[in-house]
Amino acid sequence: MRATMLFINGEVVTVNSEFSVKEAVAIQDNKILAVGTNEEVLRYAGEGTKIVNLEGRSLLPGFIDAHAHLELYGTNKLGVNGKEAGSIKDLLGMLKEKARLTPKGEWIRGWGYNQNTLKEGRHITRWDLDQVSTDHPIIVVRTCGHISCVNTKALELAGIHSETKDPNGGKYGREDGELTGLLLEAAHMNMFLLANYSEEEVQQGLSLASQDYLEKGITSVHDAGGYGPEHIRFLQKAVRSKRVKQRVYALYGSLHDSVEMVEKGLESGIGTGLGDEWMKIGPAKVFIDGSSSGPTAKTREAYTSNPNDSGILYMNQQELNESLGKAHKAGWQITAHAIGDEAVEMMVKAVRTALERHPRGNHRHRIEHSGMTPSDLIHQIKELDIVPIPNPAFIYEFGDGYVKDYGERVGIMFPLKSFSEAQIPFAIGSDSPITIVDPLHGIYSAVTRRSKSGDVIADRQRITIEEAIKAYTWNGAYASFEETIKGSIEAGKLADLVVLNESILHCEPERLRELKVELTILDGKVEYAAKKEGVL
Asked: What does DSSP assign to residue 412?
């Protein structure tokens, strides 16, 4: 047995059951051949074996992003980046430049603005966007992906006027009875379906996203969906053509009318696990509530920042039980977007009801985000063997706003330590493009709980570097029923690996997000190499 590639003199973080750290790894084609000391592994060297001297740097299992939106991340790169705007004036200037280059009648799309960080401290309005153009429909999506603003032309195209009633699970912004152009939750999702990108643009975006993810060491993605039922088909074509190089576990849902999407999946006769090691159908997914930073998440008690508001629900308990209950009965893994504690509680109840009606072991039902999770729900999540998918990078991106909106409840937001203490196998997702896709940034956020301002948000919920690494690797594989083939560095598993520029286990927590990926190995092949002399 001769290896095609050897890694020696490294900090090999195996993430096996003992979380052992070794020196060297041998790869044969697309599988891990051996793990051990330099001496043990060098026995597999042959005439054509490539040998990489890690010189003490970390070698880890390839990162598994357990909740991300490949399509949204990629297509956002085709639009105007509102995160670069410091003010509404700046944003309008960027949109005007895009309008100048866009044929009349075609959509102008922007994304990423946050009213809390804009100089004016408010949402943009249709009157702002009308200054950009009245010949183009315009949509600008807030950083959370749950709220947008459109111009008058877009409202006209959608047939929305001042007498139009709010859709179920959404709201139209109004001032003195007039539409402001602000669209919340289902109102936004419906509009973006009209403003959606073409298949050609989606494929271009998926290719861009895949490359960026490779540069961050991500070898597997649990894709959390796009706008519309054709998303899965687009994604399948992209994986098959290798536009998307990562292994994909596709959550079966849509940002627009997720219940209908699940219903179609059930009617088709497919189910969780259909596919191969490159792309599999994952859980049936629906939306329960809104976003944490909007804020539109559904909470048990009113927001600290607004005693008259506690968020938006897309459905009631009975509707949730019926939709996901049917999927559970048919053998699917089930999951839901649930941010606020009321929404998380609803999902817990739905899982309990489904299991009582149709008992099933090893179901690994999930909760996407599980954003606000108090102790009573922690206990029930453990009891029911639910797998939460939290997003610690939200603490960095939105933590300062959470303190304002939720007060002391920040102590139970994305409660990684509470999950860990309860021995709940949580897996981490970036939810990119909502937050930074880099797993090292996510690990930094999980370990430090620092916000953008530098404040520590709920110190008690910090976890160790080792716990964060496991959540980004083995736990991600567990959440997709794939821990026997990936998620750790062990003989016989797929050769999906990442090399960092230094030791992660000896890195000071405050420096974790400064670490860089030097190599990403996927299926035994180097798919990304940093432009640095001597990396290979």
From this structure: G
pLDDT exceeds cutoff 60 at 287 = yes
The secondary element (H helix, E strand) that includes residue 400 is helix 393-406
pLDDT by residue (tens digit) across 155-205? Answer: 999 999 999 999 999 999 999 999 999 999 999 999 998 999 999 999 999
Query: Strands, DSSP E only, in 200-268?
Result: 218-223, 247-252
Which DSSP symbol is given to 459? G
Compute φ and ψ for 207, nearest 5 degrees: -65, -45
Q: Are residues 29 and 159 in the same domain?
A: no
Q: pLDDT tens digit string along 48-88?
A: 999 999 999 999 999 999 999 999 999 999 999 999 999 99
pLDDT at residue 228 is higher than 80: no
Contact 99, 132 (CB under 8 A): yes
- The verdict on 215 and 314 lying in the same domain is yes
| Cβ 179 vs Cβ 155: under 8 Å | yes
- The model carries a pTM of 0.95
What residue has token string 């048919």?
330
**Residue 322 structural domain:** 65-69+197-478
Q: Are residues 309 and 329 in the same domain?
A: yes
Give the integer Cα–Cα distance in Å for 411 and 407: 9
Would you say residue 51 lies in a domain?
Answer: yes
Residues 356 and 460 reside in one and the same domain? yes
Q: Could you tell me the two tokens for 106?
A: 């075609």
What's the CATH code of the domain at 248?
A: 3.20.20.140
Which residues are within 8 A (CB) of 176 and not within 5 positions of it... i.e. 6 or more apart? none
Q: Are residues 396 and 249 in the same domain?
A: yes
Q: Are residues 44 and 56 in the same domain?
A: yes
Helix (H) or strand (E) run with residue 5 in it: strand 5-8
Let me know if residue 535 belongs to a domain: no
